[in-house]
Structures are given as structure tokens and as C-alpha cells.
């Protein structure tokens, strides 16, 4: 793996992601797929909020002190983030979406123009350069936030449009750093790209979640305005749903997953919350597994991998 040239005096984390399913991501021109750093950073924020129970807590006693998220990822009020991101030039191939039937409604056709997407199976590199910080506690918080968010993005996350329908799924293939502090944190999380069975994936993922939870303890005191921060949370009530059947291609798994979602929408379950359960594809050495059928949601397929 060839890494970009970055200043040697700052700690750097190099990563590589593989695109698992078609990635619809672009700027103002839908006919040109474009991998943009603001989109990646936004997804990292999402996963940081999902996993850190105190991301909204202010960093000190000042009335307008930044929250932990603002200190790490930056904000308009409190300035830049504590890290820089670098996306090297890439040769990712993108193609237009092919509409099988004319006149059908599609998310991927805008005013008759097909959106372009990055083809699955391609990889891209992404590097993080961390700003020096004298406060070692804050430096540790920044490292852990970026590493945890990157790990989640590269194992159960995605980029671009319709990631909840399995498009744009990513796989973290590699990360590396010459900085001892960064390497210590990355080496404590399992690399799931090498697992070969669903049970192995569950075990490794659960171990990774337990490690990240040990980094991010809940706030010492209850925060009255916590209800003002609605977002996805990987708390102890979160569940992942699995199906044992494997597929030979991401397309077959994705179509099976879409049928599951359609069944959700048309079902008349007594528990209406089930209608909001969506799943992403997972990768097992070139094979895919989709979400389980609706009738099995309350069965042994449902497993809590987020327990402490």
C-alpha cells in the first residue's frame, strides 16, 4: 500500500477501504460520482454520536465551552477539527445507473439523467493527520474518537445515498500508523475483513464494541437536555439481525435485502417499531449475508452484540 506524503512531525493514521456495494455519492453533478471529504467526515460524526454516550457534554465549565464532538470534529462557532483528512488521487471507476424499465420511479434518475456510482470491489485510501495537542487527555480523546468512528464506518457503515438500503457499504481493509499511541488503539480493535463465518464475525464485532465502550464511559452526571440530541445510538438496546444464508454476489444479497424491506413496509406487525428496522450487508471473504426475514425478527437470529 502506497501512502501519501504528509508532514512527518504530526501523528498520522493511514487507512484503506473497499467498496462493497454500489456507491452513489456525488457533488452538484449527479452524472459524476465524486468521493468528497466532507461526506466522509459527516459519516464519522454520525458514528461518533452513535457510540459515545457523552458526545454532547461540554469540555469545561465555561458557559459557551465546546462540546466533546465540537472539540474533536470542529464547528462554525469553535473552529477547525483536531485532525486533517487527506484523500489521495484515485482512479475509482464510476458508471451510470441502468434503469431496467422506462417510466419506473427510481431514486437514481434525476430529471431523466442517471446518477453515476462507484463500482464495488474497488479500494481507496484515506489518511488522518492529527494536530499537536499539549493536553494529553484531549489528544487521547481525539485518537479514540477517530479510530472508533473509522472502525464502525468500515464494518457496519457506508457512504453516499441510501446506505440504509445497503448501497455504499464499506469494508475497512487496513490501517497503519508509525505513531505508538495510535498503533496502541488500532491494535486493540479486531479487523473483521478476514473473518470467514458469521459466528466469528459476531464474536469479533462484540469484542470490538466492548473495547470501544471501555473508551467512552457515560457522563458522571445526568444531562437534562439529552432528549434534545436525537440520533442513532449503539446502546445496550441496539440489535443486529442476521440470516444464515450466504450469497455469491453483493447484488444477490442486496436484492434479497430489498425484498425484506418491502415485506417490512407491507407487513401489519403488532409491533410497529419493527417497520423501522433496516440492515446493511456484511462481508465474509467475498461473500455476503443479508438481513433476516421479518417473521424471524423475534427469533434466535436477533442477537444483542452491544452488551457491556
Structure notes:
The protein has 308 residues and is of the alpha+beta class. Helix content is 27%, strand content 16%. The protein has one domain (12-232). The chain has six helices and 13 strands. The strands form five sheets. A four-stranded antiparallel sheet has the order 2-7-1-8, with helices on one face. A three-stranded antiparallel sheet has the order 10-12-11. A two-stranded antiparallel ribbon has the order 3-6. The two termini are 35 Å apart.
Number of domains: 1
Strand proportion: 15-25%
From the spread of the alpha carbons, the general shape counts as globular
Query: What is the arithmetic mean of pLDDT?
Result: 78
**What is the share of helical residues?**
25-40%
Strand order of the largest sheet: 2-7-1-8
| Biggest sheet overview | 4 strands, antiparallel
Q: Which stretches are poorly predicted, pLDDT < 50 over at least 5 residues? A: 272-280, 286-302
Integer-rounded radius of gyration: 20 Å
Ordered list of secondary-structure elements with their pairings:
Blueprint: E1 12-19, H1 37-51, H2 68-73, E2 83-86, E3 94-96, E4 109-110, E5 113-114, E6 116-118, E7 123-130, H3 136-156, E8 170-176, H4 180-186, H5 198-215, E9 240-241, E10 246-247, H6 250-266, E11 282-284, E12 287-289, E13 302-303
Antiparallel strand pairs: 1-7, 1-8, 2-7, 3-6, 4-5, 9-13, 10-12, 11-12
Helix pairs in contact: 1-3, 3-4
